[in-house]
Each structure stands twice: as C-alpha cells, then as structure tokens.
Amino acid sequence: MTSSGKTRPTMLDVAELSGVSYQTVSRVINNHPYVSDEARRRVQEAIDTLGYRPSKAARNLAAKSTKTIAIVLYGSWFHGPVEIALNVEMAAKTSGYDVIISNVTETRQQVTEALHHVKDWDVDGIIMIVPAQGLSQDEVHAISGTLPIVQIDSQHTADYPTVTLDEAAGTRQIVEHLLSLGHRRFCEISGPLDWFSAQVRHQTCADVLRAHGAELVQHIESNWSTPGGYQATRRLLNANLDFTAIVAANDNMALGALRALYQAGISVPGQVSVVGYDDIAEAAYFTPPMTTIRHNFIQLGAVGFEYLLQLIDDPRTPSERRVVTPTFVLRESTAPVTAKR
Questions:
Q1: Residues 182 and 112 grouped into a single domain
Q2: Which of 203, 273, 308, 320 is the most buried (most CB within 10 A)?
Q3: Could you tell me which residues are beta bridge partners of residue 100?
Q4: Cα 100 from Cα 168, distance rounded (Å)
Q5: What is the pLDDT of residue 220?
Q6: Beta bridge partners of 185
Q7: pLDDT tens-digit series, residues 57-94
Q8: Is residue 197 part of a domain?
Q9: In a domain, 282, yes or no
Q10: Residue 220: inside a domain, yes or no?
C-alpha cells in the first residue's frame, strides 16, 4: 500500500511485520483470549517497533461511539464492488463493529437518499463504494456534514479520504505483457465509461499502446458482463479486423470473448491472445486459464476501514488517496505472436 503522504502505522503494518494475520492483530489489541502467547509476543514487538497506537474508536474509547458503520454500495451485482463491501464488513466485525449496508442501484437520487438515511442511523462513519459517476465529492460532504466518510474505488482524488485500486498499474502490466510477446495489433473491450475504473483502464491501455507504437485497432465499450464480452467479440469478428490480442477490462467479459472466438474456430492463444482483469475465482478454470490482474480485496477492505477509524478517532487526520497495488497473474490465455497466425 502506498499513499500520498506520511500516515501513522496501521494494523496491516503490524500484521506484516509480525507475520500474523490482520485478524490476529485485532484479537491481540482487543485482548481476545484465543491467541497464543507466541503470537501475542510477536504482535507486541511489532507494535513497539512501529510505534503503532490503537485507535480510540477501535478500542471503544470514543465517548459517543455506537460501534456501527454504514456502507453505501452501488454495483452489488458485479464482482468488484461486492468483494470490497464484504471485506470492509469483515475488517469492521474483526474490530468489533456492526455494519449496516445500504444498496443503491442509481448513483444520484438513491445515493442522496441513502446518505440522508444514514445520518439518522447514528453511525460512527460511512464507507462509500460508488464506482460510477454520480454525486460529486462536494455534494457528498455537503449532505454528510461532519460525519467521517471514506470513499473506496471511487473518484481518484487526494482532496478527500479515498482508497483506490491502482487500476493504471494493473492495466500497464497486462498490456506490456502482451507487447513483450510481440503483439502490435490490439482490440479492447472496456467496461462502461461512466465507471471510474473503466475510464482509467481504457485510457491507460490506449496510452501504453501509443507509447510503444502499437495499434488499438478497435475499442468497444461494454457492460462488465459475460454476454457483453461475447457480443463485443462477435462485433470484432464480423468486422473482419486484423488483430492478435484482445484486452478485456474484466474476467467476465474475457470469458465471453473466449466463447465467441471458440465458436468462430479461432484458437486461444494460438491465433489470438486474450487477457482479463480482477482474477475472479473461476478465471483459473477457464479454457484456457486466464492471464489476468489480481486485486487484494482483503487488503483494500482493511485499508478502507482503518482509514475510517482514524478519521473517527481524529477528524484532523489528513485527507489523501491511499492506493492498493495489484498483482500480475500469468496463465495460459496468452502466447507469443507466431510468424503465421
């Protein structure tokens, strides 16, 4: 994890230094009885070394703490947002917090209503997971007032407390992998461009290809779904375009691309290489298994929740963008360009 400025140590830092899980650190801090003496010793040594100070909110020392947070969630029908929400909830419950989730299916009116409702629920803070365009940061904070808010996987800004996945780094890794295999003619299937992650992945893909003198033969905007990836690939094939690689903005659309290529008698990766993004659990079992980008959603949830605790504990905590970096996963859906494809 990186950030735009110096931040105080977190439970994640303690867990990494002591070699135990985030949950074990939380149990030690909260005097849970089912922790070995050895684990306690290692955690305490890491706390002393880092100078970690447990949040007063996490220890329930905040005078008016309700030990409850709210999550405002848009996109629960997709893999990424729901994984983030589940891992925020896990981190919160590990620290003894209850969680209220408000699902919304529209990013302006329903988010506005959800924020007004949340203010009446007497929660200590809010995690917003709204990855598509809707309310501006200023509008969100005008509604929430002094209630602490952390936005996850939302607008990429350092002006408000935000935790994001490094979409640009992940896209750069996977496109440069294809370039290293000799690919020079690409087609891209992006997510809907009113989503912040789709915007970054699309723009980064175009920028990397341009920087290497490669050609983006065709870009099709799709909808994150497997049928969407299938239909987009059918359009590419029906246009008789000359390309050797497809960059799909998530694994579900990559799966649809695999199906369309199979039906057309085009081998992957023999004739066309395909990459996805997100490393969903099924990606390793596609035919062929998918080369993709893995995000650490457990870390993302923990970072977001800890940031919220810091804001609850001390409203003077700096507003910044904290970033969780991805991992490149090489499988069997990519191969070097051959002389004749």
A1: no
A2: 308
A3: 70
A4: 31
A5: 98
A6: 215
A7: 444 444 457 789 999 999 999 999 999 999 999 999 98
A8: yes
A9: yes
A10: yes
